[in-house]
Design goal:
The chain is α/β, with parallel strands linked by helices. It has a single domain, classed as SGNH hydrolase (Rossmann fold), CATH 3.40.50.1110. It is built from 12 helices and 7 strands. The strands form 2 sheets. The protein has a 5-stranded parallel beta sheet with strand order 4-1-5-6-7, sandwiched between helices. Helix 6 packs parallel to helix 9 and helix 7 crosses helix 9. The longest helix is centred in the last third of the chain and has 20 residues. The chain is globular.
Length: about 260
Amino acid sequence: MSILLGHEPVKIVVSGDSISKGVVYDEVKKKYTILEENYVELLRDKLNGIVHNASRFGSTLIKGIQKLKSSIFNDKPDIVLIEYGGNDCDFNWVEIAENPDAVHMPRTDFQTFEKTLLEAIDLVRTNKSIPVLMNLPPLNADRYFNWISKNNPVAKENILKWLGSVTKIYWWQERYNSVIQKIAEETKTICIDIREAFLRFPDFSTLLCIDGIHPNKDGHIVIANKVFEYIKGRYNFLLKNHFPPIQGYAQTEYC
C-alpha cells in the first residue's frame, strides 16, 4: 500500500493473453474480434490512474514475460496483473487429429509454466511493483472439443483417441489453474479467483463464446466485477468516486 500511495498517478499493467486483450468470437461475422467492453476497459473508466494493457492474442506465459520486461522498465507500474495459462496448456490439435498415436506436448509444459510464473512474480517484485495473479475461467469441454475438431467426424475420432475422454480437456486445464493457485499461496501473492466467480453460475457456459473457452460479453462483466471487488477491498482509493460494480445481465445473475 505504501508503494502505491507514494506515486501519482497510479500505474497498472495488465499482462495476459486473449482474455485480457478482450478477444471474443463474433458468431455473426464468424471471426474473432476485440470486444470494446472487455473487462480491462470496463475497469479503466472507474479507476484513478493509468492502465496499460500489454496483453496479446495467443500469448503464452513465456512470450508474455518478454513483453512484461519492457513494460516493467518503460512504464514502472505500481501493480502488474498477470493472466496466463489458457494458451500454455493448449495443444496443436491439427497435429493430434492427423497423428493421434504420436506424443504431443502442450505449448508450455507443466514444469516450465510453474517455473516461469515464479520468475514473473520475482521480476515484478524486484522492480518494486506489486504482482497480482488471475486464475483461469473454466472451459466447456464439449463445446471446445467440437471447436478444435471443426465438427469433422474423422478429426473428432482421432482427437478422442488421443484424449481418451473429452472430460480430460477440462482436467488438463484445471491442472494449470491449480498451479497458479499453488504458487500464489507459496509466494504470498494475491490471486483473483475468476474461476470461482464463473462457477457460481448454475450454467457458466452462458458466459463463454461458442468456442467454449473465451469469455463473452457477460463473462467479461463477471471478470470486471471480480477484479473490482479486489480493488475495492484493498485499494479503495483507486476508485473514482467509489463507483458501484459494473452493471449488466451477468451482474444481475451473479448477485
